[in-house]
Design brief:
Elements lengths: L1 H15 L51 H4 L7 E6 L1 H13 L7 E9 L2 E13 L26 E5 L16 E5 L9 H11 L8 E10 L6 E10 L3 H6 L1 H4 L5 E5 L15 E3 L9 E3 L6 H17 L2 H11 L2 H13 L6 H4 L3 E5 L9 E5 L34 H5 L3 H15 L8 H15 L37 H10 L2
Parallel strand pairs: 1-6, 9-10
Antiparallel strand pairs: 1-2, 2-3, 3-4, 4-5, 5-7, 6-7, 8-10, 8-11, 11-12
Length: 501
C-alpha cells in the first residue's frame, strides 16, 4: 500500500509540475562518471515510470481560486488600516528596544478593503519582521509614542488575524497571516513583486503569492492615522501555506524548514549549524522547523540524512537518488527563475533565504521540495558575495560554490538535468513567451507603476518617489530596469548571457 500511495503522489506531482562573502573563481566540476543521457525518472522496484504531464509548464492552480487569487491580486491595491491602543504600541516600541529581533505580538484591530469588499478583524496580532532589515517603526531608542508628532519609519510587519482569536471570523478568504513588507532598497517599487509574479507565470507553484497594498496605522490619541504608503503583501510560508497545496505536495502534515544564512545542506558542516524548532523565541536558527514540531527529533534526523545523501552520493547513484526524492524538473525550473532575476543572496551562492519541505516524516522515504523566498535584492541589485560580483553577467552554470552548497551545482553535472535548466532559462528569455524579456517585463512593471504612482508619498517621508535605481549599497549602480540601454538594462544583459549558453 505504501508503494501505491507514493506512486499516486508522484503522478499528482508530475501532472502539476513544471517541468559572509568574498569573491573568488569557481568552476563546476566535470561529470565524475561521464554519464550521458541517463533515464529521466528512475524508479525503485516494480514501479513504472511516471507518464509525461499533459502540460508540464503550467499546472492547474484552481486550488487557489477565490482565496489566494482574491487576496493577492496584482490588478488591485487593497487598503489595510490598523488601529492600536497607545499602551500596545508602546509595548511594541519597548520590545524592539530590548531586542531588535523581537517576535512580540501586540493586540490591534484591522480592516482590509479591496474590490468592493470590506473585512474587519477585532483583536488581531501585529509584530515586527525582518532580519538585517528590521527597524523601529517610530522614533529612536527609548522614545515612546509622540501623539500627533511621531517620527514614523518604514519597517516590515506581520499581521496575524488569528493570533489571539482562533475562529473562522479571523480569516480573510481563508488567509490568516499577511507579511507586510516595505520596499527596502528598491526605489523601483517592483523587484520582489516582479519575481513572485514571474514564478507564478512560469508555473512554479511552490512560490508564495504577493501583491501591492496601502497601509495605515492609527495609534490611539492621534488625530489621524499615519499613512505608511505602498507596501508589498506576501503570503506567509507556514503550515497553512503547505495545507493549501496539499494535493501538489502529496501531504501537508510533515516537515517544513526555514533555512537562514549558513544553510548549506552540506553534511560536512550540518553538525556545526543550529537546528531547532520554532520556539517563538527571538533566536535565529540556521535550520528552523516550522511545522510538525512535536516530532522534531525525527525531522532533524531526516534532514541530516538528506544532507548525507546529498553530499556523499556520486555518479549514477546520486543521479538516481535525487530523482527518487525530488521533482528535479520543478527544482531546476525554480532555480532558473532564481538565476534569471539575479538572486545572489540565495541558497547556491550565499546559503541563505529559502524553505524546504519534506512530504513524509519517514527518514528515507519522502519527496523533497525547495521553496523560493525573499527576492528584494534582485533585478540589478548586485553585490560582491560568494563567487559573484555581477548578478547580471555571472555564469548561470556556476552561480555558487557547489563544493560548499552542493544541491544545484551537483545536479547540473548531469547532461539530462543540465538540459532542463538551460532550456528553462531560454524559455524565460524567449520574447514569444512574454515572461522575462525586456518588452514584456517593462510593460508589466509600467502597468503596476501606473496603479501605485499616486500613492507612494507617505507620512514616513521615506521612499516617496519611484526611481529606476538599484540599491545604493550595491557594487553596480548602473543597472536599470526600465531604461533600454543594451549595456545596463538588466533584462537585456541577462538574456544576452542566456543566449550564449
Amino acid at each position: 500500500m505504501r508503494s501505491l500511495r507514493y506512486l499516486f503522489v508522484a503522478l499528482i506531482v508530475a501532472l502539476f509540475a513544471l517541468a559572509g562573502c568574498e569573491e573568488y573563481e569557481f568552476k563546476l566540476p566535470e561529470n565524475p562518471d561521464n554519464i550521458e543521457n541517463p533515464e529521466d525518472n528512475p524508479n525503485d522496484g516494480d514501479e513504472k515510470p511516471d507518464p509525461e504531464p499533459v502540460n508540464p509548464d503550467y499546472p492547474d492552480t484552481s486550488w487557489a481560486a477565490g482565496e489566494l487569487d482574491w487576496v493577492f491580486d496584482m490588478s488591485a491595491v487593497p487598503e489595510i488600516r490598523i488601529e492600536v491602543s497607545l499602551s500596545e504600541w508602546n509595548t511594541l516600541l519597548e520590545a524592539y528596544d530590548r531586542n531588535s529581533n523581537t517576535n512580540t505580538y501586540i493586540h490591534c484591530d484591522a480592516e482590509f478593503k479591496s474590490k468592493g469588499e470590506t473585512h474587519n478583524f477585532a483583536d488581531a496580532g501585529l509584530r515586527l519582521r525582518g532580519n538585517t532589515s528590521r527597524k523601529r517603526p517610530e522614533g529612536n531608542g527609548g522614545e515612546m509614542h509622540k501623539t500627533n508628532n511621531a517620527d514614523w519609519h518604514h519597517c516590515h510587519f506581520m499581521l496575524n488575524l488569528r493570533k489571539f482569536q482562533k475562529d473562522d471570523a479571523h480569516e480573510l478568504h481563508n488567509v490568516r497571516k499577511l507579511h507586510l513588507k516595505w520596499h527596502k532598497d528598491d526605489r523601483a517599487y517592483c523587484r520582489e513583486l516582479y519575481c513572485y509574479d514571474l514564478f507564478r507565470r512560469f508555473g512554479i507553484w511552490t512560490a508564495a503569492y504577493s501583491s501591492y497594498c496601502r497601509l495605515w496605522i492609527h495609534v490611539e490619541g492621534d488625530s489621524k492615522p499615519a499613512y505608511y504608503g505602498v507596501y508589498e503583501m506576501i503570503e506567509a510560508v507556514d503550515d497553512k501555506y503547505v495545507k493549501k497545496r496539499k494535493e501538489l505536495y502529496g501531504d501537508h502534515k510533515h516537515n517544513l524548514w526555514k533555512c537562514g544564512w549558513g544553510a548549506t545542506l552540506n553534511y560536512n558542516d550540518i553538525y556545526n549549524c543550529s537546528i531547532h524548532y520554532d520556539d517563538d523565541s527571538e533566536n535565529n536558527y540556521t535550520y528552523e522547523l516550522k511545522s510538525n514540531i512535536e516530532n522534531f527529533e525525527a525531522a532533524k534526523a531526516q534532514l541530516i540524512e538528506f544532507t548525507r545523501n546529498l553530499t556523499q552520493r556520486t555518479g549514477q547513484d546520486f543521479h538516481d537518488w535525487i530523482a527518487s526524492v525530488c521533482d528535479v524538473r520543478l527544482l531546476l525550473r525554480t532555480y532558473a527563475v532564481n538565476v534569471a532575476v539575479g538572486m545572489w543572496d540565495d541558497y547556491w551562492n550565499n546559503c541563505n533565504n529559502f524553505y524546504i519541505y519534506f512530504n513524509s516524516s519517514d527518514k528515507n522515504s519522502y519527496k523533497f521540495f525547495f521553496i523560493p523566498y525573499d527576492y528584494d535584492n534582485t533585478l540589478g541589485t548586485s553585490s560582491h558575495c560568494g563567487v559573484q560580483s555581477d548578478s547580471g553577467r555571472h555564469d548561470p552554470l556556476n552561480w555558487g560554490d557547489t563544493g560548499r552548497n552542493p544541491l544545484i551545482g551537483k545536479i547540473l553535472q548531469y547532461d539530462d538535468y543540465r538540459a532542463i535548466y538551460v532550456e528553462a532559462l531560454k524559455e524565460l528569455c524567449n520574447p514569444d513567451n512574454s515572461l522575462f524579456d525586456y518588452d514584456s517585463s517593462v510593460a508589466r512593471i509600467q502597468q503596476w507603476h501606473s496603479m501605485i504612482d499616486d500613492y507612494v508619498v507617505n507620512d514616513t517621508e521615506e521612499d516617496c518617489e519611484i526611481k529606476d535605481r538599484p540599491a545604493g549599497w550595491g557594487n553596480l549602480y548602473d543597472y536599470r530596469i526600465l531604461d533600454p540601454s543594451e549595456d545596463w538594462n538588466f533584462f537585456k544583459v541577462k538574456c544576452g548571457v542566456v543566449a550564449k549558453m
